[in-house]
Write a structure and sequence with these properties.
- The structure is a homodimer.
- Chain A is of the alpha/beta class.
- Chain A has two domains: about 5-125 and about 320-335, NAD(P)-binding Rossmann-like Domain (Rossmann fold, 3-Layer(aba) Sandwich), CATH 3.40.50; about 130-315, Dihydrodipicolinate Reductase, domain 2 (2-Layer Sandwich).
- Chain A is built from nine helices and 14 strands.
- Chain A has helices spanning about 15-25, 75-85, 110-115, 130-145, 165-175, 210-220, 255-265, 285, 315-335; strands at about 5-10, 30-35, 45-50, 50-55, 55, 70, 90-95, 125, 145-155, 230, 240-250, 270, 290-300, 305-315.
- Chain A is globular, with a radius of gyration of 20 Å.
- Chains A and B meet through strand 9, helix 5, strand 10, strand 11 and strand 13 of A and strand 9, helix 5, strand 10, strand 11 and strand 13 of B.
């Protein structure tokens, strides 16, 4: 079998696992798949195209002969090993926040800015989950009528915080049905039957790191340095798929009818909007799907040229693993990676 | 015991039950309490100050000698019986949407516009839950610096849809822990582990009725006919207490420091905002409390004189039952009701 030597770093995590599934589903040309994780998971076996692959501990020799390495093991692991992978000759597609804002690192959502990928790209950053689904929707609109300002409030699923966070919601829900208590470990407070207006740590100025990521990454991807964007990121007791309530003001002519037409013909977007039948995207329906789903497209009568959208996407797939694999596919398409 | 003859209409519902508790807690001067509900609940006994009171079926004679009737049995029940109650000599405080937008009906949140109450007030409307907590916060800010525009996204608890909706979330969560299915009845789709961007029915123009209520009621209460407000109302799998992500633009000088000072000294508001310790209001903590809680007070750097707030309040209490009883207390204070 001809193909690439691919490494998945963080293979046992929620995103890593999804990366393996997506490489399979999309028949990505894999000759050898190497799975890496922390010592704790060493020896575990994961299935890929019917064979069992043993998870190895990540070390300095892990990237010999690797063509492309998909990293999703947290920023500190990326900071430690991405350069080693590059020096070993691999191209790194990194799902962590480690390199996203580095000026020489492309931050790529293929539908939006695959033009940033070129033969010099050795580390390519995958944007944050909540940013990806937002820019997929903003970009085609911004191309037709320039965006003046965005106000977004998110409803983010626990899977964005990894497998442990999924387990934590599970435990808390089971405890609650037995009127027992289950203390928070991965979240700052109980997540079951609650809303946490905090994702990641707080920064100077009062935004969380998640909110600042959304602002900075959106600006970088849309190549609009000072794009005004206000974000409030909230964790909700949903297992998977992030939802976003998005209010967008445009400099010139825009309305819901026009936005619907643009979104309908845009790549990677599915409009799901038939309010007469209570049809709109919801996290439980969108989980497992590839596109970014948009509904509740309506004029905001409070301001000229302003619309509201409800945007839902599978944060483990388009928000992370799928986007990373799509970047690898782009690299193949541009012959930056060659089989 | 001297006091008023009080009727609670819809006594067996989630809000009605809370009304009875709040009349007790606040030692509202009740001489006789009459509890009314639909035929289904006739004969049920509910406790008030240690005595059991039998729930009666509502009919045309229910309001004889009643001084004040608290209605929370849905708009159609209010439309049918509020005038009968008034003709019997009672003052009606109505928690339904039936009369809220009638020009001769005061729509009252006591901290905001108790000046609307006068001796001619025979029907007084209690605003919608999501509106009450919003205007309590907007009003003191608006008095210092006029509000130019508001963008709000809500995270609303199931209790806002009544006891049946609470039971539905319970059933769906239990079914899920057993990997069984439990179909939606009160909501258009599954609410457990999901977000529903629909509360109430859809209207011309694409807003839901809940969203339009928020726009229209806020304008009426703040006496600002064209106040620009965009609302996206979302149901989340939380049992009780609504959360709101609120972005507010002001015409003139405003910032987070100033807003914090104003909110700190305003009636009915508790500022809970210490991000260094991950302190902010959350629905599980605010349930059972009386005030409107505000946290995440921060400057929105995307626009001049603009701030973000996170506002949480118990929708059954301040959002409904407590506000209704506070209106009755105002009527007493103004001698419109007399013991």
């Amino acid at each position: 079998m001809s193909g690439l030597k691919v490494a998945v770093v963080g293979a046992t995590g929620a995103v890593g696992n999804e990366m393996i599934r997506i490489l399979e589903e999309r028949d990505f040309p894999v000759d050898q798949l190497h799975l890496y994780a922390s010592q704790r998971s060493e020896g575990k076996k994961l299935e890929f195209h019917g064979s069992k692959i043993t998870v190895k501990k990540l070390d300095n020799d892990s990237f010999k002969d690797i063509d492309v390495a998909l990293f999703s093991a947290g920023a500190s692991r990326s900071l430690e090993f991405a350069q080693i992978a590059v020096q070993s000759g691999a191209i790194v597609i990194d799902n962590s926040s480690a390199f996203r804002m580095e000026s020489n690192v492309p931050l790529v959502v293929p539908e939006v800015n695959s033009h940033c990928l070129n033969s010099k790209s050795r580390i390519i950053a995958n944007p944050n989950c909540s940013t990806i689904q937002l820019v997929v929707v903003l970009n085609p609109l911004n191309k037709i009528s320039r965006i003046k300002r965005i106000v977004v409030s998110t409803y983010q699923a626990v899977s964005g915080a990894g497998q442990k966070a999924i387990d934590e919601l599970n435990l808390q829900v089971k405890a609650k049905t037995k009127s027992e208590e289950s203390l928070p470990e991965n979240f700052p407070h109980q997540i079951a039957f609650n809303c946490l207006p905090q994702i990641d740590v707080f920064l100077e100025g009062g935004n969380t790191k998640e909110e600042l990521k959304m602002i900075n990454e959106t600006r970088k991807i849309l190549e609009s340095d000072n794009l005004p964007l206000s974000a409030t990121c909230v964790r909700v007791p949903v297992y998977n798929s992030h939802s976003e309530s998005v209010n967008i003001e445009f400099y010139e002519d825009m309305n819901s009818k026009k936005a619907r037409e643009i979104l309908n013909r845009s790549e990677g977007i599915e409009v799901l909007d038939d309010i007469k039948k209570s049809v709109y995207p919801m996290p439980i329906d969108i989980s497992g799907k590839d596109d970014v789903y948009v509904g509740r497209i309506r004029d905001d009568d409070s301001l000229l040229n302003t619309i509201n959208l409800w945007v839902v996407s599978d944060n483990l797939r388009k928000g992370a693993a799928l986007n990373a694999v799509q970047i690898a596919e782009c690299l193949l398409g541009k012959n930056i990676l060659e089989v």
